């Protein structure tokens, strides 16, 4: 009886403690990190607008436990799969068994299974110690393929394959209100710094890059060689017919000084349309109308012929571009990733860029698309709808076709007085060695005219984590001086579109930490998309990230940065939540 009373006492005490803790709203303004050894990490609350205050409280609203459990249960099934190319069929079939999980949102009654889609295995960037690795170096990129592909999977009522979620591509699908360059450089850089939404003891640093709206080449025009996959695998409504309509949209937006050619490949490659001025629209439209799908896929031969045609219409003062449109299912001739990369790297020396448009469901080879675009100094897109075609070839045509800067690299030197550890979010395939930064032979990413690009770092402030247990024979001691309030020093290196020599400039990150609700709308939006990406990619660093939290944050930012792409993103997130949450 005495033991029973003791047990009962401890139960009552435990329940009381949980009740007390549960009544507290875990807002970091009330519970700031107690150990801060550097002023730049001290959290400030600069909110003055009532909408910001409301956003703060909304974002801390209680979770819908049933929703979160359903989502995590579904993602847990996928976590049994360690490699992206295995077990995808099981995940797809699991989603089909529970058709109410997404509220029957898919437009396709029976979307094709995802088991033949190819995604590269991805190892997440980990936290790096500033004491051991103070430099972070990577190539900037503006690919948007991952966002459109994730959108396609959600709209089909399927759970996106985790390996298909590339955080940097989702974040960079959107436009940001960064200031344009005001000097001789084609790029401008800004930064912001706030509390990480998914871990209140961590910080989130944003580096924002904005490119000039026009370039000399964009004023001179474009010489475009379409390379179109017309093999049998393209014979479906969401492939070749969509592709033809998309290029008709492109033609309607090109300028009179532009010129196009069309190469197709199936069992063999052939020239359907030699270099032709856009003014001869009837001739070009007829060539597109005559296309049909059938046969095997000789992608390597098609690429070789397309580059040959591109050199025939080459203009050193214009943009010279091959646009490859395919589902990536190459099976004749040179088809391995290694063979194709070697071929394209040799061809790009001619000054012709290669951009890739992936499409289709069921057998889409995303990994191959990434290899082709990276090797060809171009950008990877995914075409899932006529609306996406209007974006790529209408509203954003200049950035789709014209490059403002190529081989863009970023190197950040973190201040050990402020940063204990850092983690680059995304860009896994673009991470470089520190010595590659000034090696102009090392290829990197391209930034299109008018494009805005974001890179995010999750920061563990000095004093919040144990220092590495290392002993050094040789020490480097720096005086605090004028650099005491710097989080890090950012160096940007790039080449002009027609140049071979790197140009460099720098930016000091000096913004003090703040509540995420006090950050710029740009950082708040990027944080919402990043949080969504961490959940859907099953990141081991997701902390307390939830779809619900991403939706709350995105919804409060939308009035400040209104556009159709952001509205669509919010709609996608609502499809992953219950109707009650969507209406709040």
From TrEMBL:
Domain VWFA: 223-401
A Pfam short name: vWF_A
PANTHER family in the cross-refs: CALCIUM-ACTIVATED CHLORIDE CHANNEL REGULATOR, ZINC FINGER (C3HC4-TYPE RING FINGER) FAMILY PROTEIN
Protein name in UniProt: VWA domain-containing protein
Annotated source species: Zhongshania borealis
């Amino acid at each position: 009886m005495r033991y029973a009373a003791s047990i009962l006492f401890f139960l009552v005490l435990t329940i009381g403690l949980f009740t007390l803790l549960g009544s507290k709203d875990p807002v970091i303004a009330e519970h700031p990190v107690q150990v801060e050894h550097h002023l730049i990490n001290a959290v400030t609350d600069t909110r003055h607008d009532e909408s910001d205050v409301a956003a703060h409280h909304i974002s801390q609203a209680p979770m819908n436990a049933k929703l979160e459990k359903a989502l995590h249960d579904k993602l847990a099934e996928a976590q049994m799969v360690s490699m992206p190319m295995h077990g995808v069929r099981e995940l797809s079939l699991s989603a089909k068994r529970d058709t109410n999980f997404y509220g029957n949102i898919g437009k396709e009654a029976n979307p094709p299974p995802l088991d033949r889609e190819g995604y590269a295995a991805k190892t997440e960037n980990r936290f790096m110690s500033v004491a051991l690795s103070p430099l972070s170096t990577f190539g900037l990129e503006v690919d948007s393929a991952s966002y459109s592909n994730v959108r396609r999977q959600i709209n089909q009522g399927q759970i996106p394959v985790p390996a298909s979620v590339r955080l940097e591509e989702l974040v960079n699908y959107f436009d940001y209100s960064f200031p344009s360059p005001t000097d001789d450089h084609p790029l401008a850089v800004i930064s912001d710094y706030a509390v990480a939404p998914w871990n209140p003891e961590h910080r989130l640093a944003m580096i924002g890059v904005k490119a000039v709206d026009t370039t000399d080449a964009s004023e001179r025009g474009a010489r475009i060689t379409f390379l179109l996959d017309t093999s049998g695998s393209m014979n479906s409504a969401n492939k070749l017919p969509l592709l033809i309509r998309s290029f008709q949209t492109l033609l309607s937006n090109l300028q009179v000084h532009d010129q196009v050619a069309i190469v197709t490949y199936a069992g063999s490659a052939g020239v359907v349309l030699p270099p032709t001025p856009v003014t001869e629209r009837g001739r070009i439209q007829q060539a597109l109308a005559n296309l049909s799908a059938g046969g095997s896929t000789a992608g390597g031969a098609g690429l070789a012929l397309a580059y040959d045609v591109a050199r025939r219409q080459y203009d050193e003062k214009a943009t010279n571009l091959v646009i490859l449109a395919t589902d990536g299912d190459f099976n004749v001739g040179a088809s391995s990733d290694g063979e194709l990369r070697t071929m394209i790297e040799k061809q790009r020396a001619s000054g012709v860029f290669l951009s890739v448009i992936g499409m289709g469901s069921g057998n889409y080879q995303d990994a191959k698309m990434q290899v082709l675009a990276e090797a060809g100094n171009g950008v990877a897109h995914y075409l899932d709808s006529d609306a996406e075609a209007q974006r790529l070839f209408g509203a954003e045509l200049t950035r789709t076709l014209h490059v403002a800067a190529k081989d863009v690299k970023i190197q950040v030197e973190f201040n050990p007085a402020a940063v204990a550890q850092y983690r680059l979010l995304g860009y896994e395939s673009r991470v470089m060695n520190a010595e590659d930064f000034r090696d102009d032979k090392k290829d990197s990413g391209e930034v299109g005219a008018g494009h805005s690009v974001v890179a995010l770092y999750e920061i563990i402030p000095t004093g919040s984590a144990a220092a590495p247990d290392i002993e050094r024979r040789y020490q480097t001691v720096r005086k605090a001086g004028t650099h005491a309030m710097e989080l890090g020093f950012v160096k940007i290196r790039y080449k002009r579109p027609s140049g071979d020599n790197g140009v460099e400039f720098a930016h000091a990150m000096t913004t003090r930490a703040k509540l995420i609700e006090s950050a710029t709308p740009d950082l708040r939006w990027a944080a919402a998309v990043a949080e969504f990406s961490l959940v859907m990619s099953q990141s081991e660093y997701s902390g307390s990230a939830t779809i619900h939290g991403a939706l709350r944050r995105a919804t409060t930012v939308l009035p400040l940065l209104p556009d159709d792409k952001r509205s669509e993103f919010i709609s996608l997130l609502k499809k992953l939540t219950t109707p009650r949450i969507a209406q709040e």
